[in-house]
Amino acid sequence: MLAGALVALSVFRLCGDRRRLLLKQSWSAAVLDALGVELEADLTHLAPGVLLVANHVSWVDIFVINAAVPSAFVAKEEVRRWPVIGWLAWKNDTVFLRRGSRGHARLINEEIAGILGQGKVVAVFPEGTTTDGRSLLHFHAALLQPALAAARPVLPAAISYWELNGERSLAPRYDGDLSLGQCTRAILKRPRIIARLVTTPLRGLAGEDRKQVAAAAREAIALAAGLPLASNPPGTPAGLPGAPPSDGRPTGSPNRALADSA
């Protein structure tokens, strides 16, 4: 984290967009390596200028995505005030969303559309919160609107974590009352954890509305990650659903894609 802060303070200001993305990618890969997390990524369906939509398990998800696909993230405005992390998020092209403000939402939609129009990837977690990684919450369709309004595709991507023995890992979970320290210690206690990022076919290319795209993306992510769909209704506070753990493994044939290009 200290290295990332130093790079953001110095080199970022002197770099072009391509170099900044490569630095973000290599730094994220280094963070995963320090945590003992091995990345396997299937990027078959990746395309320029997509809105990457993923399920949300942990703070580690951000590094998993950035190590595979350097992205601008959409986060709640409160994150910007977090010590160090908020500043790093701001320096790494995070778009901060002020909840409950329609006027601000319009500005954010325009900002996201502008980033997508440059061929860059924007990532969002439409569940709006983290889970324990064993099921999916309701997807907030409004978060997909900027891409659809700009005629840009939505890329559903499934994130899952696995132990070396092939069982689903709960160590990275950052939900409920778990603190950042507890989550980090749980990860570091494991000799190695495998993080899988699996992309699925692009959505929103046939004129579907945002609710249709959100539902299709959620189903695609559930299938790719081997997850059941939690039955919490829209608008309820996203908490931990009482879903049983899934024994399903993610579909696809992931290729290891630790960043080595910077």
From TrEMBL:
Task: Tell me where in this chain the Phospholipid/glycerol acyltransferase domain is found.
Answer: 50-162
- Which one GO biological process term can you cite for this protein? phosphatidic acid biosynthetic process
Taxonomically, the superkingdom here is Bacteria
A UniProt-annotated Pfam family: Acyltransferase
Q: Lipid biosynthesis among the record's keywords? A: yes
Pathway annotation: Lipid metabolism
Region (Disordered) residue ranges read 228-262
SMART domains referenced in this protein's UniProt entry, alphabetically: PlsC
CDD domains per record: LPLAT_AGPAT-like
The reply to whether Lipid metabolism figures as a keyword in the UniProt entry is yes
| Keyword vocabulary terms for this entry | Acyltransferase, Lipid biosynthesis, Lipid metabolism, Transferase
Question: A GO molecular-function term, please?
Answer: 1-acylglycerol-3-phosphate O-acyltransferase activity
Q: What PANTHER family would the database entry show? A: 1-ACYL-SN-GLYCEROL-3-PHOSPHATE ACYLTRANSFERASE (PTHR10434), 1-ACYL-SN-GLYCEROL-3-PHOSPHATE ACYLTRANSFERASE-RELATED (PTHR10434:SF64)
Please give the name of this protein.
Lyso-ornithine lipid acyltransferase
